[in-house]
Structures are given as C-alpha cells and as structure tokens.
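2.7 Reproducibility. Because tokenized structures are sensitive to small changes in the input, we list the exact sequence used for NosL family protein, including any N-terminal residues retained from the expression construct. No trimming or masking was applied before prediction.
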Amino acid sequence: MEPSDPSTPSSDTQTNRPEGESPVSRRALLGGIAAAGVAGVAGCAGDESASISPVSIDDGQACDQCGMIVSDHPGTVGQVHFEDDGPEGGRPAQFCSGTCTYTYRFDAEDEGRTALATFLTDYSAVEQAVFEEGGDTMFSSHVESDAFAREPELTVVVRSEIIGAMGPDLIPFSEDGDVDEFVAEYGGEAMAATEVERATLEAL
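Resulting structure tokens (single pass, no recycling of outputs):
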C-alpha cells in the first residue's frame, strides 16, 4: 500500500467536474495505472519462465549444493534456473538430489535471487532401475533433459523407503497413478512439489 500523498486532492475538493460525472480521484487513477504496470511485469516474468526448458546435466558436473558429481549418484536430480547468472556462470544450478535442489534454492531466495524455474526428475517419464545398496533401496538417476519436469507439474513422495544421493529424498512423479503405485510399494506421503518447505526437508 502506497503512503498517502498530501498534495493529491481528494474527490471532495475537485472542481470543474461536469454535472452527473462520477468522481474519480487522481490517486485512484494512478493506482489503476500502477496495478496494470505490475500485472504487465508479472506477465513478462511468467512468459520468461514459461519459455525456459531443462538442460541435460553433463558428466562430471558437480552438485552446486554439496559438490558431489551428479551423474555418479542414484535418485532424484534437479536444476534451478535463476534470473541472474549468479555463481553458476550463466548455466542453471544443478543438483544430485531433491533435497540439495530445494536447499540451494531456498538459500538463494533468502539472499535475494529470483528462481524462474525449478525442474526435478519425473519418474513417470523414465524407466527407472531399482537396486539395493548397503541395505538401502535406490532408484536410478537420470540426467538427460527429457527426464525433467517443471515443479508445478509434479507430486513428490516424502518419507518413503527410497534413498537418494543425500539419504532420504523427495521422489517426484507427474502421473497420479504412479504416485499411488509408488506409495503402495514403498510407503511415504504425497504432496505437491510446490508445497515443499524447509520444514519438509528437515522432516525427511
């Protein structure tokens, strides 16, 4: 809400208004223009985000959160495209797990950076391998661009039996049927990927 402008006349003090014309204050007119401007900016930002596509993660690329090589580890991987180039040098930030993806993005947003698009592995779109290692059940990782889906399109399962690169992780799907089948087999709780918060990660 903008502070009031004492120099702006109210509708009670305006003069020379033709009889029968409804009073419209200058503040209301300017407010409408400002609102339209904000909507226009938001529309541009939305258009920019919608035009962003995921990229394949290169072999040897280190996770921007923990430093581990993304392609060397199992489970969900992610990428975040920011408005600025940031420390990533013009590429999207890339991660070896869902927890690393969200942790990095939350920290970056706290520092004032703007995330335009977040992508996670879509296990509805890949043929994942399931394997056991050290008594843990794991899913294969997938770093090719078409293995990713945009965050709003995904449901993640938290607190399942599946272990990722950094331990308990978020397992994302774009198809509700796949979510149901996964929960029936591996347990966990489903939630919209856009609803993940720091507390979600802490409770994994």
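Residues 70-202 form one domain.
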